[in-house]
Amino acid sequence: MSVLVIDNGAYELKIGYATDDKNPAHFRVSNSITRSKDRRTYVGNEIENCRDYAGLTYRRPHERGQLVNWETQKAIWDNQFYGKTSKLVGMNGGKPVDPSETSLILTEMPYSLPALSSNMDQIVFEEYGFDSYYRCTPGSLVPWNDIRELYNDTSSRSSPVSECALVIDSGFSSTHVLPVVLGEVYWPAAKRINIGGKHLTNYLKETVSFRYYNMMEETFLMNVIKERVCFVSLKYQLDLEEAHINKRKSLLRIDYALPDYRTSKLGHIVKGATSSNDSNQVLTLTNERFTIPEALFRPSDLNLDQAGIPETAINCVKLMPEEIQSMLLSNVVLVGGNAVLPGYKERIREELQSFSPQGVNLRVGMPVDPISYAWQGGCRLGSQKDMLSKAYVTKADYMEHGVNLCLSRFGIKKMDNSIAMD
Amino acid sequence: MFLVQEVEKKTKSSISRSSGPVQTNAFGRKQRAAVTAAVTAASAESTSTSSRLRAVNKRLAELERENYHENIKIDIPKRNLEMIGGGPARTGLTPASRKVLASRKTLANHFDDDPASTKLYLDVASSPSAYPSRPMCSICGYWGKLTCIRCGARYCGRACEETHLETRCLKVYA
Known about the structure:
The complex is a heterodimer of chains A (422) and B (174). Chain A has 422 residues and is of the alpha+beta class. Chain A has 3 domains: 2-151 and 371-421, ATPase, nucleotide binding domain (Nucleotidyltransferase, domain 5, 2-Layer Sandwich); 164-195 and 306-365, 2-Layer Sandwich (Nucleotidyltransferase, domain 5), CATH 3.30.420; 197-295, ATPase, substrate binding domain, subdomain 4 (Actin, Chain A, domain 4). Helix content of chain A is 34%, strand content 19%. Chain A has a 6-stranded mixed beta sheet with strand order 3-2-1-9-10-20, with helices on both faces. In chain A, strands 11, 12, 13, 14, 18 and 19 form a 6-stranded mixed beta sheet that branches. In chain A, strands 5-4-6 form a 3-stranded antiparallel beta sheet, with helices on one face. In chain A, strand 9, helix 3 (114-128) and strand 10 (132-136) form a beta-alpha-beta unit. In chain A, helix 14 packs across helix 15. The longest helix of chain A is centred in the N-terminal third of the chain and has 15 residues, at 114-128. Chain A is globular, with a radius of gyration of 22 Å. Chain A starts with a strand and ends with a helix. Mean pLDDT of chain A is 89; it is low at 413-422. By secondary structure, chain B is mainly alpha-helical. Chain B has a domain at 136-173. In chain B, strand 1 and strand 2 (154-155) form a beta hairpin. In chain B, helix 1 (2-17) crosses helix 3. The longest helix of chain B has 35 residues, at 29-63. Chain B is elongated, with a radius of gyration of 27 Å. Chain B starts with a helix and ends in a 7-residue tail after the last helix. Mean pLDDT of chain B is 76; it is low at 1-26. Chains A and B meet through strand 4, strand 6, helix 1, helix 3 and strand 14 of A and helix 3, helix 4, helix 5 and helix 6 of B. Chain B: GO terms for molecular function: zinc ion binding. Chain B: It holds the Pfam family zf-HIT. Chain B: Residues 1-23 are annotated as: Disordered. Chain B: One of its GO terms (biological process) is chromatin remodeling. Chain B: This is HIT-type domain-containing protein.
């Protein structure tokens, strides 16, 4: 019986079999059906074969992070499970996924509507027929990794799961702050900020379209530019002044040569003095580079009336029992795509430090690969069959007890430590 | 701001005073004119804040949208040949899963169906910040010390004010 782990993100799904390897193989697959300008459609990662990235439009199974459209999701999954070009199939010696011989660990967004979770259960058991299945949020998988590695802490761990972790998961649709105790999210303190990578990309798109060139249809390109040039400012006031006073010569200025879709698909950052024979259109970005990601820390800049990540994190910690507050602050883990932004970790550490009570040993850790870290946690859980067998629901049980069994087993649980304690 | 408060005060007192028909007769022409002016000003103020709120919400909704054009329909390609053994036999194996796969419901529909869980979902949203917001220039991104008296947008100086008035000023006269 093999264990398949899918971290089903709204932007990318992370998929792979659970193994004991130090670096288990897994794949990131774009969770979308994309159409190019010449009206060809590409499912998932097939988009890499597209020759012209201009004006791509997307169809995604998720809406605001909640899995709404299973028709789309099934097409993308089928492509991964049975497709001749699927890397997952290739890794498994060309054998497609056989659900009846496979356990599934699958993630969904925290506080998904019960009707949508139930849809997920039905598809997993009735459409695919997986042998057994465990549904959870990505945040709760994170502490199955040995998070002490992130803080260069060499003390040995007694339980299979890290006892305490404050997981800050900043993804595509939203950002979640989840206190995870013994592998279970403590739901009364969980918080969500309605800003994710999608909003940053759209904000950049809107800003560039207003100030420079019309980019409203170039979501794909703006996402690439965001990933390449944006950073989180550690001294916002100074950077803003610097960018304002001396816009032309500012150190913060970056020239980005836009793609012409003949010689380049994505464009590139212009280094040094602009060569005059470079015929590409150049987009000059200065304060856009850091005022855009700043929305994660000050959503009020976008007129969204919510606290930023560090303030939300500290509010969340304050809702926890007092005994474990300092433990959570010593085990902050940053995951999700936005964590890759340069300066993100430093900024969160700096602001959290100023909010924390004195004498707290604040430790903020970021894994090497924050995007797949939850998947890796799921892989650790999946490779410990005795743990997993306590958590999952088997197909036989589902057929006997019906949909409500999954809802009660995987639903929002109060502090239920039964999985990790023994 | 002070003016607005004054106007509101006046409106309230004038409404309470004008509750009886006998007292209305006691109003002089000057007073009546003042009341009319105050009421018009107060209603103008409330419509402008609500229209500002509407503009803010509209923008936040736009930031959720990945495709610029609305109602883009992308069909799922049928290419079972590229799947090993033709892929899964057929879709919709049981009535329940067929129903899920055929569902055209949007998230908004699901929210309407289940108000209790929707409230739970909405309540997890982080509360507003305890710190004041920083006004940013809506044109260039620098600090926005000045406010447009027509639509409330922020800008940093003369140049950005002009750009704002030419392009983005939202005020619509009803």
